[in-house]
């Protein structure tokens, strides 16, 4: 009987028995990483048992020009059959769910219950278990079962994809599994750090970086667990954290290092640094703005594309969104990578940015991955949040147990925040206007101003004189435009020592973007935001002391309700603070922030997942979105995007093309989308349903990005 048919003369057939056995062995190998080898084998063995039904055999034969075995036609779905047989043998609807959902995704419990009532076609003969499942060593709690099921599901679907690819596209399959082993990468990193030390000046900053690196070496041979590394901006935490992670992974027999970062702008910078040290073929950069040429035949590029599917690379640099939404997904495409997170070291960079509205399910996931799947977690930031012990909000039912034991790598007595003190905060609560702030900025030749919203950035920028280099940065600019502008800022700061450089930006420059201004202005927000902005001030220590001014725009409008105002109120509640940069102050700040929260699980993810008898995988996946997309993504006309737009109109959408067009997309609110659609600026691409285009060049400004007001008015009046 046929599992797959490879076109040719004659066609090549993969028998069902071969495919089932291959997938079973591969799924077992993946699941062995967390002690569930036999379960992986059973799922793989039964996953395509349903392809033995006559209607499927006729379907696959007719689709490939082969003679049918009978005149029988009709429904040919097959995944549910293997799931029913597993349920009959093991009385486990959860394991049945993994098989039944291996194409469409994991079911909600109520839908699964109905699927299990279906009858197995009589021609599909029953068979015994190929192996006896061993009693699990995991002792799962109710809050962990859904993570275990997704992990075993990941083993199955990736094994299925890989064996199918090996049969159908063997040349492509050969491109997988690129990259050197972790000891080789550690040797490269150590050589790079040794070289840096020989060419670096003997400054306090470099002495601190050496100190941090040495602590990471000494404290890496600890068991799998939770760790934190609190290092002020400029302390070299990117390379030091990777040094610790590689040594820790080697010590504990772990397979890879995954670095999760909140913003794509930091990912691009971090990935470029690591690739230059470790080599392109060892670092996978996975985020929405990675560009590939759809006509590219280069094997290295193809290898990267393939690795994005399942993260089979030694070093992965990705987004928090990609990481955590995969952990809560029900779809095979998103879950494929999960088994490659098992037995890894996970670095959560800028951990203070974890959204409080999802903090409870996120912490629960990290605890489960550590306890069940051998994942070590390193939390890195200059502004360490409080994630251990009991986390309490203002609502009594909101409290939950955080991480039990987080070991800090940098002892408090090191007092790095004092050794690296290069900035002071000057905080004013006096209400100011856009004009007031623009006037203050004009008193400085080199200044960065960071605000909370796109509107505030635009209004202050429009009030600055057009002299020297004056730039705007916000998400009204497409990612390609943002990256180009950041590069322009860096180049200007490096090569235009005496010229005027003024930048007004939203928070996208706040964490991880390597720029250095002598003066920074930051609109009032949380303390963590203020300190992150201060990290862009006197970053290289060229001045005795830089200044970051915290200001209020209360003359223009109050702060938006929600996260920003909660964070600002938590900062205002800190009375009598002598040192805004100390870890102790940051701890007090986060406790103030948490006590203002009604819930740490606003979408009730726990309600959908924590009842073992009623797990709603699909519902939870739909609700767990770290970035709410309440608006629309539109493709803008900027630089060479017109060439890609023509390809879209001519050939329609493809995965590669849409990935490239993502670099020329802007997300806008529904109100602005409706307005621009009404005046005819936004149009749906006829060849790509649901893809929208701003094809009017004047609607995209080279300084401000996408304009949401009517740029046609003047032209109409001129007629």
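^ Assign residues to that structure.
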């Amino acid at each position: 009987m046929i599992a797959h048919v490879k076109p040719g003369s004659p066609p090549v057939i993969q028998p069902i028995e071969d495919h089932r056995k291959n997938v079973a062995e591969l799924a077992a190998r993946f699941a062995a990483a967390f002690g569930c080898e036999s379960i992986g084998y059973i799922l793989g063995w039964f996953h395509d048992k349903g392809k033995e039904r006559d209607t499927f055999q006729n379907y696959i034969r007719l689709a490939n020009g082969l003679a049918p075995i009978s005149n029988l036609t009709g429904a040919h779905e097959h995944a549910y059959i293997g799931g029913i047989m597993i349920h009959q043998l093991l009385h486990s609807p959860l394991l049945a769910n993994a098989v039944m959902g291996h194409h469409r995704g994991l079911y909600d419990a109520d839908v699964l219950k109905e699927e299990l009532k279906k009858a197995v076609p009589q021609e599909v003969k029953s068979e015994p278990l190929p192996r006896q499942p061993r009693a699990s060593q995991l002792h799962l709690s109710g809050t962990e079962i859904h993570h275990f099921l997704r992990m075993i599901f990941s083993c199955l679907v990736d094994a299925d994809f890989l064996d199918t690819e090996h049969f159908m596209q063997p040349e492509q399959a050969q491109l997988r599994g690129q990259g050197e082993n972790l000891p080789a990468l550690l040797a490269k990193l150590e050589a790079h750090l040794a070289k840096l030390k020989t060419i670096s000046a003997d400054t306090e900053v470099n002495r601190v970086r050496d100190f941090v690196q040495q602590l990471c070496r000494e404290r890496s041979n600890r068991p799998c667990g939770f760790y934190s590394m609190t290092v002020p901006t400029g302390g070299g935490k990117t390379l030091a954290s990777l040094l610790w992670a590689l040594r820790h992974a080697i010590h504990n027999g772990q397979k890879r290092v995954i670095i999760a970062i909140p913003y794509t702008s930091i990912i691009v910078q971090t990935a470029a640094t690591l690739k230059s040290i470790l080599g392109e073929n060892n670092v996978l950069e996975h985020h929405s703005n990675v560009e590939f040429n759809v006509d590219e035949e280069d094997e290295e590029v193809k290898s990267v594309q393939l690795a994005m599917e399942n993260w089979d690379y030694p070093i992965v640099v990705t987004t928090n969104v990609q990481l955590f939404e995969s952990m809560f997904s029900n779809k095979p495409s998103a879950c494929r990578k999960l088994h490659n997170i098992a037995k890894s070291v996970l670095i959560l960079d800028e951990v203070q940015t974890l959204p409080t509205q999802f903090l409870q399910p996120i912490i629960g996931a990290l605890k489960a991955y550590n306890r069940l799947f051998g994942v070590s977690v390193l939390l890195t930031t200059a502004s360490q949040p409080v994630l251990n012990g009991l986390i309490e909000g203002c609502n009594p039912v909101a409290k939950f147990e955080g991480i039990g034991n987080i070991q800090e790598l940098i002892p408090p007595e090191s007092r790095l925040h004092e050794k690296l003190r290069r900035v002071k905060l000057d905080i004013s609560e006096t209400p100011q206007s856009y004009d007031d702030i623009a006037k203050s900025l004009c008193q400085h030749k080199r200044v960065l101003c960071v605000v909370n919203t796109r509107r505030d950035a635009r209004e202050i920028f429009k009030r600055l004189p057009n002299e020297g280099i004056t730039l705007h940065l916000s998400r009204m600019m497409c990612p390609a435009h943002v990256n180009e502008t950041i590069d322009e800022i860096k180049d200007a700061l490096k090569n235009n020592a005496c010229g005027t450089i003024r930048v007004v930006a939203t928070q996208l420059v706040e964490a991880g973007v390597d720029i250095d201004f002598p003066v920074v202005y930051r609109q009032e927000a949380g303390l963590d935001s203020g300190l992150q902005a201060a990290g862009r001030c006197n970053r290289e220590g060229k001045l005795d002391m830089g200044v970051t001014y915290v200001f209020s725009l209360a003359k223009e409008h109050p702060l938006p309700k929600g996260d920003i105002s909660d964070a600002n109120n938590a900062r205002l509640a800190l009375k009598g603070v002598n040192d805004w940069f100390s870890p102790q102050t940051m701890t007090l700040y986060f406790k103030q922030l948490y006590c203002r929260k009604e819930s740490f699980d606003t979408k009730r993810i726990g309600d959908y997942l924590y009842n073992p008898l009623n797990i709603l995988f699909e519902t939870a996946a739909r609700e767990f979105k770290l970035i709410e997309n309440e608006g629309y993504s539109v493709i803008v006309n900027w630089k060479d995007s017109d060439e890609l737009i023509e390809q879209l109109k001519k050939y329609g959408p493809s995965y590669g093309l849409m990935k490239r067009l993502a670099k020329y997309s802007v997300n806008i609110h529904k109100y602005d989308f409706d307005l621009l659609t009404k005046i005819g600026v936004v149009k749906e691409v006829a060849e790509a349903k649901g893809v929208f285009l701003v094809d009017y060049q004047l609607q995209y400004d080279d300084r401000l990005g996408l304009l949401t007001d009517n740029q046609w008015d003047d032209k109409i009046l001129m007629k």
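DSSP finds 29 helices and 23 strands in the chain.
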